[in-house]
Amino acid sequence: MIREWVEDIRIKTKDMGLGQKAEYVLNYYWYHILLSVLALGILLLGIYHITWGKKMVEFSLVLVNQDINYKRDREICKEFAAASGIREKRIQVDSDYLLSYDDVRLDGVNESSYEKFFFNWSCGGIDAMVIPKSFYAYCKRQGGEYADPIDLLPAAAELPAASLFWDGETCAGICADGLHIANKLKQDKTDPYLLVFPAQIRHTDAAAQFLKYSLQL
Question: What pTM was estimated for this model as a whole?
Answer without folding.
Answer: 0.74
